[in-house]
Amino acid sequence: MIDLHCHILPGIDDGPKTVKESIAMAEEAVRQGITHILCTPHHNQRFSNEKSDVLVAVEDLQKELDRQSILLTLFEGQEVRISRNLIDEINSDKILFADVTDRYLLAELPTNNIPEYTESLFYELRQMGIVPIIVHPERNRGFQENPNLLLPYLNMGCLAQLTAPSIAGVYGKQIKKLSEELVQNRLVQMIASDAHSRKDRDFYMEKAYSIVEKKFGPTVIEEMDQVTRDIINGEQVYAKDFRPIV
Ligand SMILES: [Fe+2]
């Protein structure tokens, strides 16, 4: 499995505080069958985590994993809280994408709403050839109230990423139910952990994949798995067969 959203880097956001905690997370990731992790510290939320700092942190942690013979490959990324000056930040090379071709951008919306400028911002990004990946829509109040608000974004070529613990039931029955509806209606194209620690925000990837496989069949999981590979390789990915929840 490839995990495209994980706060595993030590001491730079609300993830692990020490290298030891990062290693414990890495060991659990490997146990769950994860082979590659996109390290996505918060950017523009409570933490800034500049591109240059993330690159160094990823290199340091990868060296430690290699030293301890833990078979996990790290890639550098960011979970970018959207803002009106995102385009300026991209143009001044401050943003890390999910892939080396700078196509896929992990975009986080605020928890309580969908800002009114989101659609025009994403449209502008699409014009630049960038594909925003909306992370954990199931935890945003706007999409919770009306998940079909994802449709215009998918129609414009954006993607959406479900968080594994949401479908595993960690955030309660309502979010689990919504997560299942999102998968059933193909409104999300991939699952990622958004893991922060072993203690309270663990991976749940094994459990989430198994739930999806049991409920929706192995093809859905195979497709999601392929999407994560294509994203990391910078290949074209389109959301397909998505439909409104009725
Ligand atoms: Fe996150």
Account of the protein in words:
The chain has 246 residues and is an alpha/beta fold. It has a single domain (2-232), classed as Alpha-Beta Barrel (TIM Barrel). Helices cover 41% and strands 15% of the residues. The protein contains ten helices and nine strands. β1, α1 and β2 (36-39) form a beta-alpha-beta unit. It starts with a strand and ends in a 14-residue tail after the last helix. It binds fe (ii) ion (FE2). Fe (ii) ion is lined by residues 5, 7, 79, 194.
Sequence-ordered SSE layout with sheet pairings:
Layout: E1 2-6, H1 19-31, E2 36-39, E3 42-43, H2 51-67, E4 73-76, E5 79-81, H3 86-91, E6 104-108, H4 118-127, E7 131-135, H5 141-145, H6 151-155, E8 159-163, H7 164-168, H8 173-184, E9 190-192, H9 205-216, H10 218-232
Parallel strand pairs: 1-2, 2-4, 3-5, 5-6, 6-7, 7-8, 8-9
Helix coverage percent of residues?
Answer: 40-55%
Shape: globular
> How many alpha or pi helices?
10
The CATH architecture can be given as Alpha-Beta Barrel
- Order of secondary-structure elements: EHEEHEEHEHEHHEHHEHH
- Kindly provide the radius of gyration, computed on alpha-carbon positions and rounded to a whole number of angstroms: 17 Å
Keywords: Hydrolase, Protein phosphatase
EC number: 3.1.3.48
Organism: Candidatus Enterococcus mangumiae
Protein name: Tyrosine-protein phosphatase
